[in-house]
Amino acid sequence: MDKLNLHVTLPTLESVLYKNTLAFTTDLAIITGNTYKKEGSNGRERPGDYYTSSFAHGYYTRGCAPYDKKEYEHAEFDHHVWGISSLGRMTCYNKMSLATGIRLQMFVDRETLQKLLPYSMKKDEETFEVQLGAYPQFSLDYEEKKKVINSMGAIKKTGREYHFYEPYHTSEIRTYPEYQLEDTRFIKVPNGLDTSELVVLSTSALTRYGSLEYLKVEPVTWTLEKNKYGDGILTSKHVLLAGVPYDSDKLNENFYSTDMAQFLSTYMEKEMFASEAIKEKAYVKK
User: Fold this and answer.
1) What residues have CB less than 8 Å from 103, skipping those under 6 apart?
2) Cα 273 to Cα 79: distance, rounded to the nearest angstrom
3) Model pLDDT, residue 5
4) CB 86 within 8 A of CB 36
5) What percent of the chain has pLDDT above 70?
């Protein structure tokens, strides 16, 4: 498959408010602090909170009810961001809420859409599912982890790296090298969640503060929605990461100049769509 021209952003509120609203959280997102629904769900189907690119301008925090007074329009506490909660509800988040996760979206032109369709699985008349790019997502299962631990001498670095913040540390971005054992690619991530609670990962394994977790680098699954103009929107099925500050400037209302947008373009986009990730069959599946 040819290399595609892909650029990630966050979903607009309108694009996820009434359709494709819930997004399941990954183990990486959980380890980096994502708020998610624990009760009544398990494995890979636990919905998580996530940001959108839509500013909640003119709203206050308690329920985001609108102010009707002009003097409040530019108050510092008034500048928040819309998102979707793990219950699927439209919710207002503070720009420095590190527990709110990242769900990605991409707009694709007609030409790109036509390239993707042969690799996609049809869900309904206008909706498809496609796997594109790769990112650390879920923990190795018991047998995979056992094999990795017993084969340390055969593990090699691939040369790829991933970057994200340590939980609760907005000033420090750490580098996580990618490793490979046979066909399995993974990263090693220490659990930095400052909590006394045991956290259950998708494999039902328990993790606590200080535990070293092995997260598999896997194809990213996207919902592809065609529109009447022949182009479309790709929205990630999962909340992929948390712990990234949206913006330190409370009065900024331009998404593309936010800290979040800079993080997406500097790290997440490049790492997810490394040139090899498009070329390798394992990363673009039918």
Assistant:
1) 10, 11, 16, 23, 50, 51, 235, 236, 238, 239, 240
2) 32
3) 77
4) yes
5) 85
Residue pair 244/164 in contact by the 8 Å Cβ criterion: yes
Q: What DSSP string describes 198-265? A: -EE-TTS-EE-TT-EEEEEEEEEEEEEEE-TTS-EEEEESEE-B----S-S-TT---GGGSHHHHHII
Q: How far is CA 173 from CA 6, 7, 178, 221, in A?
A: 24, 21, 16, 25
Provide the pLDDT for residue 61: 47
- Distance, CA of 196 to CA of 218 (rounded, Å): 30
Q: How confident is the model at residue 1 (pLDDT cuts 50, 70, 90)?
A: low
* Type of residue numbered 7: H
Question: Residue 166's pLDDT is what?
Answer: 81
**Cα separation, 44 vs 111, whole angstroms:** 32
Structure tokens at 29: 């997102």
List Cβ neighbours of 134 (8 Å cut-off, separation of 6 or more): 185, 217, 218, 219, 220, 272, 277, 283
**What is the identity of the amino acid at 273?**
F
Given a cut of 60, whether residue 265 has pLDDT beyond it is yes
d(CA 155, CA 11): 37
3-state SS, residue 84: strand
Q: In whole angstroms, what is the distance from residue 176 CA to residue 22 CA?
A: 28
Residue type, 238: H
Query: In this predicted structure, what is the pLDDT of residue 284?
Result: 53
